[in-house]
Amino acid sequence: MSPERAVERYLKERKPEVSESTYRNHKYALSRFVEWADENELDDVSDLDGFHVHDFKIHRRETGGISEMTLKNNMCTLRVFVRWLESMDVVDAGLAERMIIPSPDDDTRDTKIEPDTAEAILGYLEKFEYGTLRHALFALLWDTGFRLGTVRALDLGDYHPDEQYVTVRHRPDEATPLKNGANAEREVNLHGWVCEVLDDYIQMHRKPTTDDYDRVPLLTTRYGRPAGTNLRQNINALTRPCHYSGDCPHQRDEAACEAADEYQKSQRCPSSVPPHAIRRSAITAWLNDGHSKELLSDRMNVSTKTLEKHYDARTESEKRELRKEAFDMK
C-alpha cells in the first residue's frame, strides 16, 4: 500500500473520532509526510522503518521553516499514524515506541506577548484600524483568552451588548464545534471597552451576511463566516512590530523582508505570534492581575492542571511579587 493510500484510510477512520481542528492538524502533518515519501521513493508504506522516520524529521527541521514545537507536534502525529499501521500489521511492531520525538525547551511557553505589547497593538488599532474585523478579533482574543475556534463560532445573537457578555455554544453539526464539546459551553463577561469596539464594528464594518447554515456570524467577511486561516492570518500580520509600531527589532530592511512585504508570509517575522499565543498571554495577564486559577479555568475553558502546565507563563519573580502583594508584605 502506498503512503498516500494508507494516510487516506487512516484519516477516514479517525475523522468521526476527533475534533475538526485535530483532524485538520493530522491531515496537514501527514500530507507533508506523503510528499516526503513520494520525493524519496518510499512507494510501499510497509517498508517504513526507523531510518525513514529519522530522515523525515531532519527534512522537516531543515527545510520546513517550522519551530521545534511544531516539529514535535508533527512527529507526534506521525507516531499516532505509525501506531495505527502497527495495529493493521502493516509495519513492524514497536516502531512507534522507538521514535525519538523532539523535546523543545520552551514546552510551548515562550511564544507570547507582553501586556505592554498588547496595549501597543490596541493603541494602533484604536488609531488606524478602529472598529475593523481585525480590531474586534484582537479585542475579543485579548479580553477573553478564547481559542480561535471559539471566536469564530460566535453568532451575532450570542453577543449581548446590554449585559456585556457572550454565549459560547457547541454546534458541531453546523461547522462550529468547540474543542471540548458541550463542556465548553458557557457565558463569558466582556469588559466595557471590548463591547464598545464590537458595537462599532457591527455598526460600521461588519458585513451583513449569513453562513452556509443560514446562521448570522458575529465576525464576517463578504463570503460569510471567516475561515480559521483567515483569522489566523490577521493575527500573524497584526502582531508584526513593523505593522503596529513602524519599527523592526530584528534590524531587517523592510523593503527586503518577505514577512513585511508579503501578507501571506507575515508569520515568518520572528516577532509575529499565532492566535494561541494571544490566549496564553491573556491567561498569564489575568493571573498576574491576581485572579484565581479556578475562576480562570471556567472563563477560559481549561483545567487548572493544563492551565498551570501550558498557559501560566509567569516568571518565578512575578509569582513571588504577587504573593507578596496578596500577603500584604510591604
TrEMBL record:
Domain Tyr recombinase: 108-324
SUPFAM superfamilies, sorted: DNA breaking-rejoining enzymes
Assigned keywords, A-Z: DNA integration, DNA recombination, DNA-binding
Gene Ontology molecular function terms on file: DNA binding
GO biological process, one term: DNA integration
Matches recorded under Pfam families: Phage_int_SAM_1
Annotated ranges, domain Core-binding (CB): 1-86
Chain positions covered by the region annotation Disordered: 311-330
PROSITE patterns, A to Z: CB (PS51900), TYR_RECOMBINASE (PS51898)
PANTHER family, sorted: INTEGRASE_RECOMBINASE PROTEIN MJ0367-RELATED, PHAGE INTEGRASE-RELATED
Protein name stated in the entry: Tyrosine-type recombinase/integrase
Species name: Haloferax namakaokahaiae
